[in-house]
Design goal:
The chain has helices at about 30-35, 40-50, 80-85; strands spanning about 10-15, 25-30, 50-55, 65-70, 75. By secondary structure, the chain is α+β, with helices and mostly antiparallel strands. Bound molecules: zinc ion (ZN).
């Protein structure tokens, strides 16, 4: 997916809950598909290249896809029906 702001290619990933720094983070699908557990320590989160998101709440277990543009810092999510009700 191309970023509608800068038109560069975006990276598909998902949101997850975190207890350090922020309440939510974005992580790439490439990391999710190669690791059986989410990154929990600061080293794992740094190695995963997570992006902290300061929402104040976590997210549900079944994550919706979210695209991240590293060039202009935009996130674009695709919410499922149960999160929009
Ligand atoms: Zn962009």
């Amino acid at each position: 997916m191309k970023c509608p702001y800068c038109e560069k290619e975006m990276t598909k990933g998902a949101l997850g809950p975190m207890a350090l720094r922020a309440w939510t983070y974005w992580v790439s699908d490439a990391y999710i598909q190669t690791h059986p557990y989410p990154p929990t320590t600061q080293k794992e989160q740094a190695d995963a290249g997570i992006v902290p998101i300061y929402t104040g709440y976590g997210t549900k277990t079944q994550a919706d896809p979210v695209w991240y543009c590293k060039d202009c810092g935009k996130l674009i999510g695709e919410l499922s029906d149960d999160t929009t009700k």
